[in-house]
Batch of 2 targets.
Target 1
Amino acid sequence: MAIIEARNLTYTYPYAESPAFKDVTLRVERGEFILLTGPSGCGKTTLCRCFNGLIPHFYGGKLEGEITVAGLRTTEHPIHEIAQHVGLVFQTPENQLFALTIEKDVAFGLENLGLPRDEMRRRVDWALKVTGIYDLKDRAPYEVSGGQQQRVAIASILAMQPEVIVLDEPTSFLDPLSARNILEVINRLNKELGITIILVEHRLDLAARYANRVIVMNEGQIILDGEPRKVFLENEAALIGVGIPKVVRLYMLLKRAGLNISRVPLSPEELSKSIMEELIFDRG
Amino acid sequence: MIEVKDVYFTYPNGTEALKGVSLQITNGEFVAIMGQNGAGKTTLVKHFNGLLKPTMGKVLVDEVDTRHVSVATLSRKVGFVFQNPDHQLFSETVEDEISFALKNFGFDEKKIRERVDWALNILDLTRYRKTSPFMLSGGERKRLALASVLAWDPKILILDEPTIGQDRNQKERLRQFILQMNHQGKTVVIVTHDIEFVAECEPRVVLMANGKIVADGAARNVLTDPDLISRSWLILPEITNVLLNLNDLGFPTNVMDVYEARDLIIERIGWARK
């Protein structure tokens, strides 16, 4: 069942001369983990803003075509209503943090939902723990590092337990290990709780292994859409600007040099294993 | 030249961000300061232009103690590009943003026009000349912040997490650009945890953890040391990782480049087939 359905969607910012994206048709099934990527300025962030109604309610401008999220036409429902179904984590966390303590920031959305106190406490603690910031809960959001702020932003969305979480480069500010931990958390939300994930990322090396589908945008249009290994294998040229993971590039180079590895690797471990098998097979 | 002499720094809230850091960066060097979030990287480089003054120890920029000069004076020499561009952007148009500091530094009209055109061009922002900075994407704002610092041509360039939000092409352009600046004699210091980017640039790497420097050396030596990397809470470059997993088969463990890895693997397989 589709949780997001966009048909012939075109959007132009106020005073902009040309649309940020045009004629986008997209169907996202419930439970998918989508990696949305493309060069800077390709329209991916703008598209994400349509998923929770920020476009057109907050940004204004001209939205043409149709978009339905969790059964709601976003043009006809206010942002706070859509926000109960779709959580959006932004590129720069501090734009969405404002409370005096991290704990209050994470609780804010829940207070607005009018949840019972126990349930609120349980969800806030849980969200703080899975994002690894429980010990920081009494600190002010502006006191902690950029990476920790992003975790606060993610925790406050997690606490809402939405059906869809859209994350716009959530790991940009994180060091690699924290980035991997956050992606693991996002992956668990998807695999264990069935939350639909739309992840905007440039770092395909870290993120590709979790996704069941990669969507590549360029100049306001979707140019590629499919299973990661298939997309990487068949569209090398189109992906040069996107930055396919280095293990995939090494795989391509080895293949071109005559080495026959059957599976496109999505992690260093997968590639090492394939090379090892090739060597052992040859010896035998 | 930047000399950091046994510097300690404690924030007003009591956080000890630097615990005895000594470091020397000579003119024309290209240095990457790496480490996990909270390791003290940004705190350290904020000492280079006097934004922060040591709690103990001292920092000298061209032999001048940073405690004795204003940030404005130091800025002419040390250009600092912040991690979050929104901390430094405020003008109505991209063009105004770039010319602002130039006006403050007293450049004449003609020079300002030249420098603005140059900076717009080199960072691929010319088409946004009259656009509001806030209409730009995150990656574009980041480039604008860099353009507005580069415009006054500081001798030392400090880039705090320059690759954040940049796509593959822009990273490659940034790499070329940094190497070019460095080649022309500028000192470039980047603060980053983008291992793959550093693996491609191969600068001198200063690795920090818990407010201290834990390693200082060539990228190829520092980034491929599994023990150092795990102690600093980073992760190994992808290619290093591929070959490290094959260490039992005799592959070297200090490789970061895809082409070098390909040649080694092909050679090894050719040998196995004989």
Target 2
Amino acid sequence: MDLKIENLTRLYGGKAAVDGVSLTLTPGVWGLLGANGAGKTTLMRMLAGILTPSAGRVLCDGADTRAMGEAWRDMLGYLPQRFGFYPEFTVADYLDYMAVLKGVEKRAARRRIGELCETLSLTRVYKKKIRRLSGGTQRRVGIAQALLNDPDVLILDEPTSGLDPGERVRFRNLLSEFARGRIVLISTHIVSDVEYIAAENAIMKDGRLIDVGTTEELLRAIDGKVFTALVPEGLLAQVERDVRIVSLKNEGGGQTLVRYVADGPLLRGSEIAAPRLEDLYLWLFRGEGRREDV
Amino acid sequence: MKPREIKALLRATPAADAPGVDEAVRRCRAVYARRRTLRRLGAAEIIVGQLRFVARPVWLVQGALLVVICLALGRAGGGRHALAMSALTAVLVALTILPFYGRSERHGMREIEAATRVSRVKLLLAKLAAVGVGDAVCLGAAALLTLRNAPGTALVFVVLPFALASAGSLFALNHLPGGAFAATGFAVALVSVYWAMAERLSRLPAAAALAACALAAGVLAAECIKMARDAQFGKDMEEILWT
């Protein structure tokens, strides 16, 4: 099974939110990385068939997904960035409602809902109103609805936002298992989630796809550009201004261990460190974190 | 597999040369391997099945209204005030659509619903059917009580104000910014006219009332078609997503 994105474009006014994206997704977990406003959400909405592309198409095993209609939506699980629900709905109501909309037969839905509630730790809150649940639990309900129809293609926009570390680990494990023979596309700002589970990554910037590859392949771009150095506290403010810092760690004794990305060593005593996806993200998207996402 | 799905696959299948046939075989195998073991529901089953969720809040509001209608009209007796009360009831029944218009967008459900198997048109039809069934029950009760108090006036004091209020409020919701306020304003104006002119309206010829009802029904149908078209082509969807 493959999902081929051909020259997908979406214009708003004169501006391209997604600009000629071409990519072939194969079974496995795909990470979609990019700063806010890079076009990730717009791309995902077009893949999910809820936004019409200005140009281009999406082919599932050669068939145009727009022509496939219901057949495509049967194969699809989708969790949008903004998870909504009707205020009177309990978790049970919500999942039943979504099962009906997805056309899952009642008995099969019951079984599937039971399995998902078990896996996503929703059994205890099953009869509770969703609006009374924490953000993380609401997110898990959203993930459960996306998985209800046992989809072949799962599109998740920021699925881990609001989840605590334990929930994130469980979710990552669930997805890794689920992705066997299926396509899972995840957009997230939490780079470590993608680093752990994504077999392949696609990086978007200004509506365009700027790189695609496995984490190892992508990290080659910043090989030898990630450094660590101990910096005295007095110099820290200046270093923060001048250097692209990934992380800071207080080492005691007035020293701070600084991890940074640069073309070459900028601080005295710098040592080369093994690059991580977070380093690459910062290298590519410095200063782009404040724009609104589309 | 459904005929529509087969057609979609055949449309995408290359011409029948040797490599094309191999490609078609490969795709058929891929589709077969992906075949679903879950039994799928038909469109009618989907609509009926989700009425439970769509209709429940609508019918709760309409049920409460029905109680008020019965109490008010049961005590009204005959006369001008009873007729005006009937018109007020019919307008209130028509306005029960207001809290449910655009509810998916307000609660952030539109995107999730749009990505499911049920098309937005089917979902809209289910919602309209749910509202319609409740409206019919409420109007039936109002008409019975009105006929008991003032025989021969149900068309002018129940059906006509309902048709006018429905058409007017849906027009306002579909076309005007702040549509809910405009719809409420229109309803208040309509009730005021009925209250002030109840005597004169009670002498309105049946043919004129029928013509007015037909006109209002036409506007109502046009507005329902507009809603269905917008749902089908997703114009407002894109605006909602972008804003």
